[in-house]
Each structure stands twice: as structure tokens, then as C-alpha cells.
Amino acid sequence: MIHDNVMMDMWYHLKDAVLEGGIPFEKAHGINSAEYLKKDARFCELFSSSMKSFNVTFMETILDIYDGFEGVKCLVDVGGGNGSILNMIITKYPAIKGINYDLASVVESSPSYPGIEHVAGDGFVTIPKGGDAIFMKWITHNWDDEHLLKLLKNCYEALPDNGKVIVVDMVVPETPETNVKAKSMLQNYLFMSSMSPQGKERTEKEFETLGKEAGFSHIRVACFVCNFSVVEFIKKLVNNYCCSYISLPNCPCGCISEADDQFS
């Protein structure tokens, strides 16, 4: 997909966007990426199949590393598409009841999965209640701070006190780095910002600021997979909730120290 002419054409306008402002994709095609996907059936199919293929491999890795779905009773997947990702989660954790939440135009054609209810709606208006966890994969980077804050506030209102939001997205370094990981993340950042007029990749501190403003008491990066991080937004720390940090040096459960201080 990334080598398709539709995608390659936008890079020729990167310089113009830097000098003049604007979005490279829009400069190349005259419309934003969302509108273009509606217009070009061939590219829309290519885009969908590419994302589907990567999704499977990516989520398999997430489920191997991240254990934060353990103990969840009801999981709401906001922007869950056709429900296939939620189905992967529930296949591993069959005790979870799943709610796949997306626009009506998406869920009305979604296949049926055991243990999953498709619900139509707009996350910027409301989030279904009843879930003790909300999942958002590759959603937050599509929106500016104002929209994301609204989305997080709606998540907060929908959750019980012991609930959490599980976000999968890129967490960029606070300061410039030159290692391979940082360079790969920069490529993803350029790709996203060149396509989306509202898209934004965020640092850990930026996620923390938005989470705290939305009402969440604790925000933590749980693990890192394929240039993306799993970030948890905890509504309230109750019952000595254990953080289960993965690939971070300190754990704030019982031995609250430097890792916890950064979020205080």
C-alpha cells in the first residue's frame, strides 16, 4: 500500500506543505484522505486489505505480550470496525463480553461473532455504558487535542470507578533521539501527518495531560509493540490495582517509586 502511486504522490508535496502549510495528501489529490477513500474503490480495497493483514499480525503480538485484558468482564471497542479485532481478544479471553462500537454505516455490514454485540453510534457524542474496559486501537492519533479530550471524557463517563481505557497508538519521545526505534517512529509520524489534517502523534506527557484533564487518576505505558505502545488510562486506583508494567524499569504497585512519581 505505501508504495502505491496514490501514496507516493503525496511525498512530492511534502516540501510545499512545510514551506506553505497544508497537508501533502490534500495537495496531491485535492481532497482529504477520508474523502479519497470513498472516491477510489481500488485504493479503498487495497487500504482495507493492507490494514487487515497488518492488524492480525500486530494483535497477535499484542495478545502475546500485554496481559491487561485479564479479568475484564465487558470490553467496549470504540472504532472497532467490523469487530474482527475484538473477536481476536475474546477468542483468547472467552469470559469477556464484547461490544463493538462504530458508526452505523460500519456496523450494519459487520459479521456476527459469538459473544460480541455490534452497537452503532458516535464516540464524540456518547460511549456505551456497561463495560469495565474500553479499547481504542489507532484511534487517538487521528484527532487533535480538542477532539481527543472530548472522546476521553466520554470514556470516563461511561466507565465504572474500577474501569480503564486501553489505548494502542504511538508514543513519541519527549526529546529527539537518533536510534533505530526513534527513526522508525519518525517515519510513521511523517506518514500520519502527511495524510490526516487532524492527526497527531503524542508524547507520554501529552497523553498524561489529556488523561488527567479528562478525569483519569493514573496513566501508564504498559508495553511497546512494533513502534506502538499500549497506554492505560485508569479511572481510579482501587483495591491495590497492580500496574503490571512491561518493559519499564519500575513498578508502582506496592513499591511506588520513580515510575509512579512521573504521573503524580
Could you explain the architecture of this structure?
This protein is an alpha/beta fold and 264 residues long. The protein is built from 11 helices and 9 strands. It has helices at 5-11, 14-20, 24-29, 33-39, 41-65, 84-92, 104-107, 145-158, 180-195, 204-214, 258-261, and strands at 74-78, 97-102, 116-120, 133-137, 164-169, 171-172, 202-203, 218-225, 228-234. A 7-stranded mixed β-sheet has the order 3-2-1-4-5-9-8, with helices on both faces. The chain has a two-stranded parallel ribbon with strand order 6-7. The longest helix has 25 residues, at 41-65. It starts with a helix and ends with a helix.
Itemize the secondary structure elements and their pairings:
Elements: H1 5-11, H2 14-20, H3 24-29, H4 33-39, H5 41-65, E1 74-78, H6 84-92, E2 97-102, H7 104-107, E3 116-120, E4 133-137, H8 145-158, E5 164-169, E6 171-172, H9 180-195, E7 202-203, H10 204-214, E8 218-225, E9 228-234, H11 258-261
Parallel strand pairs: 1-2, 1-4, 2-3, 4-5, 6-7
Antiparallel strand pairs: 5-9, 8-9
Helix pairs in contact: 4-5, 5-6, 8-10
**CATH H level, superfamily name of the largest domain:** Vaccinia Virus protein VP39
What's the overall geometry? globular
Helical percentage = 40-55%
Main beta sheet strand tally, sense and closure: 7 strands, mixed
- Alpha-beta content class: alpha/beta
* Total count of domains: 2
Average pLDDT over all residues: 86
In short:
With 264 residues, this protein is α/β, with parallel strands linked by helices.
Keywords:
transferase, 9 strands, 7-stranded mixed beta sheet, 264 residues, two-stranded parallel ribbon, S-adenosylmethionine-dependent methyltransferase activity, Rossmann fold, disordered C terminus, alpha/beta, 2 domains, COMT_C, 17% strand
